[in-house]
Design goal:
The complex is a heterodimer of chains A (about 70) and B (about 500).
Chain A: E1 3-11, H1 14-27, E2 30-35, E3 38-41, H2 46-59
Helix pairs in contact in A: 1-2
Chain B: H1 2-21, H2 25-31, H3 35-44, H4 47-56, H5 65-69, H6 77-83, H7 85-89, E1 93-96, E2 99-102, H8 104-115, H9 137-156, H10 167-175, E3 179-183, E4 190-194, H11 196-203, H12 206-224, H13 227-245, E5 253-254, H14 260-272, E6 275-276, E7 283-286, H15 288-301, H16 310-317, E8 329-331, E9 336-339, H17 344-350, E10 355-360, E11 363-367, H18 370-378, H19 383-392, H20 396-399, H21 407-419, E12 424-432, H22 437-450, E13 453-457, E14 462-466, H23 467-484
Helix pairs in contact in B: 1-12, 2-13, 3-8, 3-13, 9-17, 12-15, 13-15, 16-19, 22-23
The chains are: A alpha+beta (about 70), B alpha+beta (about 500).
Protein name (chain A): General transcription and DNA repair factor IIH subunit TFB5
Pfam family, one (chain A): Tfb5
Subcellular location (chain A): Nucleus
Chain lengths: ~70, ~500
Amino acid sequence: MVRSHKGTLVTCDPVSRVVLLNLDKKYGFVIRDLDNTHLFIESSRLEEVKHMFEKIMDQNSYKADIKVD
Amino acid sequence: MTDVISKNNQELRSTITEYLEGLSSKTSERLFSTPVACLAIFRLLSSIEKQFIMSILYIDNPLTSKEVSSWAKPGFEGEIITRLGPLRKLHIIEKRDGGLVLNEIFRNQLKNALTGGGDYKSFGVLSNRVSRDNIEQTVLDNYALKKWESILHYMVGTDAGAPKPSGTVLKLMVRARLMEEATDYQSGGTKLKISNKGFQFLLQDVNSQVWTIILQYLRQNEEQVEEEKQGIHVVEILNFLFQLSSLEVGQAYIVESLTPVQRRMLSDLREFGLAYQSRDSDVFYPTRLVTVLSSIHSNSASGSLNNITVGQASTNITIDQQSDSSGFILLETNYCVYAYTDSPLQISILNLFVELQGRFPNLVTGRITRDSVKSAFRNGITADQIIMYMTAHAHPHLRTQTPTLPITVTDQIRLWEDEKDRVRGSVGFLYSDFNKPSDFDIIYNYAKKLNVVLWHDDNTKQMVIAEEGHNAVKAYFKSKMSKQGRPSSQGTR
């Protein structure tokens, strides 16, 4: 029988997907892993997930310390 | 790059013509009643429209559309009629006796404008006598620049104690949503804060900024005046605006020839540095800020859009002291920025997207970093705007290179912008576990017709339907099921 779930379709690049899936292991929000660039998650968690994702991305960006003289 | 800029200019042009198109035919006719307005409108038009008007200016009888289309190359007859659409919207051409004819008032006044005659006062009346406050061009330029920059500086640096512009200016800024009221946590009251739109405004060239303000001024006046007077009011303002844009900088013009409405407008424009008038003087001086309005008309109307860059525009008019003939920004491939400026305004603007590190008497240094650019994005500034701004104000050293700015940096700024929404979410319903593949096809085809499919996968037979389409799709599927007992593949209509 056909089933329908309410949720939020997340579109992202493959790298982000892996990051999100890792987050999911800890926090559990993914309803279904659709394909390389799509995830289906609980709507109520979207903002929280985005925030966590931003934080990880910020932690993983490095800046060269060039001093202007 | 030029594409983006020319698009901006086009938008600009379209806003003023759009505004004119929105006027009723009665208002338009009133507007046509002075030669200066007709000439100014004529300059706004595209070359094909101009050519058409010139062709029929001295023809008294209406032209049938057959005659008009005979001017076109074979195969383009329909084209010429559609290209005349804007002219009809502007009420410049009318239908009469089954043919096309120029609006009578427009025709007469344009003739006057071209050959002289008519209400010559509409072009402004020069003051004959040597005024006690005879003012030189450079003084006017400095005055306009100071006024304009102080407004911009106030927008960007409310905290840095920039002097507050007058109430007229502030009201207009709020109305144009360039600034908005925000709660001040220190005093508990409200204070004005720059909005996202305001940030974008700052990065535009002076011409665009003046146009934004002028259009807002027109709209604001429309709102203030009661209906029946509105037409006259707007016409007087537009007339004065067209008049101003045709005046010569450094000349004194008589206030006396202006209507009361126009006098009030003059005092408003003074606040923006668009005109100069010493206290209670009977003459006024237009500044370069307002006279360049007509230069953008002729530029954009002549179709030479592609040749204009913001940089050139501002160098031609040298309104922007900091960006006069030489730009001041040096950008290196290692993201270092050197800006030869001591203007608090330019430094504040740079501070929007550059991490400033050092300040010297005539130079500030800094770097473009992920954080600095991200904070600009949060303020609603786009990567294109940052790049455009730096291109427009690039130091002559950079101008010798093509592209002007190092690609590594511009590309990275765009990549950072893409990062902004790496993860996008949209609410929907996931459909899965179909009984048979054909059921999937039925729903998929129906949903596709409604344009509500967000995602689908043929292999796993799953799809996501947008929230607004869910009910329709569900109802459709149910009706299919009940009608046929079991849905079959024939149902895919």
